[in-house]
């Protein structure tokens, strides 16, 4: 069994282990857009994907694949590609955007982010997709719940009042507002 110092002497294995332990989907691109590395999360998602993401594997050109997208996937991806170009040209140090992704079986949402780093004089890009699907669905459910609550308050003939913990009125139904005036 290796001790910590021995493990750190083999940085490729160490860093591969670190990147593969992350749930974020990570691809490293060269400045031309060629994918030179992907972590385990990226590879697994690509293998399970039923659209353009299945083509985004090591050795393919990220820019070319994204430029061939269908129209419904095109807008956010083109904005992200422009963000990548802005990072390459140093107009921005980082770029991020939420991108919806629809597969045949599921709706996903990703916080897509790009940063760059240098090895000697060569520029590389880190493209990271953080799966925020659970958060977006929870947000949507909250909005729907608020709409239902508002509708209930507005249409209730008995009158409903909601107070916060300080005793201040948060919501007052239409019936109570009409009776108060």
Question: What does this entry show, briefly?
Answer:
The protein is an alpha+beta fold and 181 residues long.
Topology:
Elements lengths: L3 H5 L2 H10 L4 E6 L4 E4 L1 H9 L13 H6 L3 H18 L5 E9 L4 E13 L2 E10 L1 H23 L5 E3 L5 E4 L1 H7 L1
Antiparallel strand pairs: 1-2, 1-5, 3-4, 4-5, 6-7
Please state roughly what percent of the residues sit in beta strands, choosing from under 5%, 5-15%, 15-25%, 25-35%, 35-45% or over 45%: 25-35%
CATH topology of the largest domain: Beta-Lactamase
CATH H-level homologous superfamily name of the largest domain: PAS domain
What's the CATH architecture of the largest domain?
2-Layer Sandwich
How many β-strands, per DSSP?
Answer: 7
Distance separating the two termini: 79 Å
Number of domains: 2
**What is the gyration radius calculated from CA atoms?**
24 Å
Report the structural category. alpha+beta
The overall average pLDDT, rounded, is 83
| Major sheet attributes | 5 strands, antiparallel
Helix percentage: 40-55%
């Amino acid at each position: 069994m290796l001790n910590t110092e021995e493990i750190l002497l083999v940085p490729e294995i160490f860093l591969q282990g670190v990147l593969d332990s992350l749930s974020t989907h990570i691809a490293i691109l060269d400045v031309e857009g060629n994918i030179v590395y992907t972590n385990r999360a990226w590879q697994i998602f690509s293998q399970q994907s039923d659209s353009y993401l299945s083509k985004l594997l090591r050795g393919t050109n990220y820019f070319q694949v994204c430029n061939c997208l269908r129209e419904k996937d095109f807008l956010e991806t083109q904005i992200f590609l422009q963000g990548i170009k802005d990072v390459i040209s140093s107009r921005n140090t980082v770029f991020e955007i939420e991108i919806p992704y629809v597969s045949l079986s599921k709706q996903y949402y990703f916080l897509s982010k790009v940063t760059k780093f240098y090895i000697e004089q060569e520029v590389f890009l880190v493209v990271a997709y953080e799966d925020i699907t659970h958060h977006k669905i929870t947000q949507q459910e909250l909005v729907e719940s608020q709409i239902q609550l508002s509708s209930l308050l507005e249409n209730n003939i008995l009158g409903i009042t909601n107070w916060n913990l300080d005793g201040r009125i948060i919501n007052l139904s239409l019936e109570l507002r009409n009776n108060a005036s």
